[in-house]
C-alpha cells in the first residue's frame, strides 16, 4: 500500500495545534492551582523579566514589541500581582520591573505542569517516540529554544 504525504500546510498547523493543546492544558491547570487570570502571553513576559528584573524598554526589545505595548502588559501583570515596579538600586533614574512571589510561583508551577503534560504525551505515544520527536524537532529548529519574541513576531506585518 502506498502512503501519501499530507499537504505541506498541515505540518505547521499540527505543530501549532500541539502547542495550543499544551498551552490550553497548562492554563486550565494553572487556574485550578490558583492562577485563574494567567494568560499565554504572561508566561513569555514573566520569562523575559527573569530573576534579575528588567526595564520596560529592555522588555519590549526582548519581546519584539514597542515600549508602550510592554508597558501595558506590565500594567496588567502589576494589577494581577505578578510583577512590581521599583527604582533600580544601581541607577535610581531607571525603573525596574521585578517578579513578585506570585510571579515566581506562576513560573514554578508552570514548569511542573509542563513536566506533567510531557508525561501525558509520553503515555499516549510512548516515551521513546516522544524523545525521538523532540530530537527531530531539535534537528530542524534553531538551538535557542528560549526565544521570547513570539509576541512581536505574531504582531509583525
TrEMBL record:
PROSITE patterns in alphabetical order: HTH_MARR_2 (PS50995)
Transmembrane spans: none
Classification via InterPro entries: HTH_MarR-typ (IPR000835), MarR/SlyA-like (IPR039422), WH-like_DNA-bd_sf (IPR036388), WH_DNA-bd_sf (IPR036390)
Domain HTH marR-type: 8-142
Matching Pfam families: MarR_2
Domain of life: Bacteria
Molecular function as annotated in GO: DNA-binding transcription factor activity
Name of the protein in its database record: Winged helix-turn-helix transcriptional regulator
Organism in which the protein naturally occurs: Microbispora triticiradicis
Amino acid at each position: 500500500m502506498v502512503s501519501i504525504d499530507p499537504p505541506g500546510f498541515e505540518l505547521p498547523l499540527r505543530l501549532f495545534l500541539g502547542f495550543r493543546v499544551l498551552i490550553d492544558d497548562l492554563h486550565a491547570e494553572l487556574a485550578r492551582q490558583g492562577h485563574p487570570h494567567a494568560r499565554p502571553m504572561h508566561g513569555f513576559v514573566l520569562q523575559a523579566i527573569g530573576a534579575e528584573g528588567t526595564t520596560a524598554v529592555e522588555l519590549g526589545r526582548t519581546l519584539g514589541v514597542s515600549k508602550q505595548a510592554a508597558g501595558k502588559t506590565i500594567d496588567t501583570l502589576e494589577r494581577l500581582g505578578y510583577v512590581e515596579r521599583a527604582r533600580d538600586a544601581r541607577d535610581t533614574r531607571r525603573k525596574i520591573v521585578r517578579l513578585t512571589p506570585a510571579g515566581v510561583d506562576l513560573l514554578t508551577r508552570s514548569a511542573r505542569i509542563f513536566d506533567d503534560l510531557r508525561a501525558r504525551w509520553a503515555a499516549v505515544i510512548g516515551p521513546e517516540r516522544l524523545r525521538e520527536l523532540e530530537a527531530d524537532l531539535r534537528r530542524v529548529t534553531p538551538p535557542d529554544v528560549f526565544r521570547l519574541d513570539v509576541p512581536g513576531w505574531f504582531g509583525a506585518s
